[in-house]
């Protein structure tokens, strides 16, 4: 056998030829002219026209198109690059190079530039497809949220109760709870109520320059200067940062519950601020309250969880607890009896929230014992602090004396 033919035969191990023979599906085939690996006896570089056939894992070249003998080949798993050749590397137009494991270089040329580029593209794509997928990056937990924030509301529980409870439950220490007072006007001032602490340039009107939707409650991130308003948006903002949303399915469940609880709470707010007549409340508890509570009981039974979404409290639980706690207290106040006794599952749920260890400071401290409603409400406003509550020191929460929330 001539030297150049022997050199070709050594290009591909015997097992590669077998792989090619067994691989029936061709990706590309055609004539190319291949440069020999070594110079001939006369010192001349040999060029051989070969019929190239490429499968998903190898390239073989034969001496003829039909029933040709395999003269050599390339295992594609060894290919590191396929690129156009320079004039120095090839010396012929339309040349290209296949580098294999940085040890062997195959030089060949096509009949025209389009054919050359087609081979380069197809070889490159096939080689890339053989590479193992990149290893997934090691899981990196997001940085712990430690931004200083303020959760702001009137000096009552109301719509901020759930937000404050979330911070206590998550033991979030970088939070302040500023409160705005509503105070009665004197007879000389015409009576009524003075809420100017909120409705002034230093508060609402200034914040409106950052967020045109500003209302109470709102959250200020003192690190980023973000201003977030509306109770559900504030709850979701905290939930994402305090890990109180769960996985995707649990997040969807929480979002649904927040919407449902907002509807239920709006009906209560309308009652609490417009009437204190017992007849109205008998109808309310037997109607809207019963409808809402029965839906939540059915939800709990469907899911079979201790809390609304899972085995631990999440964002919706704090809003629902405040709904139950407020309605139980007002039922006792107006009707002379609680209402939770008619709903054993909700009575147990309410008790399970009350005994959560990290909420001990909340229930025993300032914020858990604020009036449920603002002073303009007809019910639930029996506690009326004289001044804005000081910022709560969570480090001393456990030292606070225990006080029943019903007192």
Structure description:
- This protein has 407 residues and is α+β, with helices and mostly antiparallel strands.
- The protein contains twelve helices and 14 strands.
- The chain has helices at residues 3-9, 14-22, 87-90, 113-130, 161-169, 204-207, 231-241, 248-272, 278-303, 315-335, 344-354, 360-364, and strands at 28-39, 45-54, 58-62, 70-75, 79-84, 95-100, 104-109, 149-154, 175-176, 179-180, 183-184, 193-194, 218-221, 227-229.
- Strands 4-3-2-1-7-6-5 form a seven-stranded antiparallel beta sheet. Strands 8, 9, 10, 13 and 14 form a five-stranded mixed beta sheet that branches. Strands 11-12 form a two-stranded antiparallel sheet.
- The protein is elongated, with a radius of gyration of 38 Å.
- Mean pLDDT is 85; it is low at 1-11 and 384-407.
Number of helices: 12
Radius of gyration: 38 Å
Number of strands: 14
- How much is the average pLDDT? 85
Cα end-to-end separation: 107 Å
- Seen as an oligomer or otherwise, the chain set is single chain
What is the global morphology?
Answer: elongated
* Low-confidence sequence ranges: 1-11, 384-407
User: Helical proportion?
Assistant: 25-40%
Question: SSE order in H/E notation?
Answer: HHEEEEEHEEHEHEEEEHEEHHHHHH
Give the biggest sheet: 7 strands, antiparallel
Beta content comes to 15-25%
Task: Please state the structural category.
Answer: alpha+beta
Strand arrangement, major sheet: 4-3-2-1-7-6-5
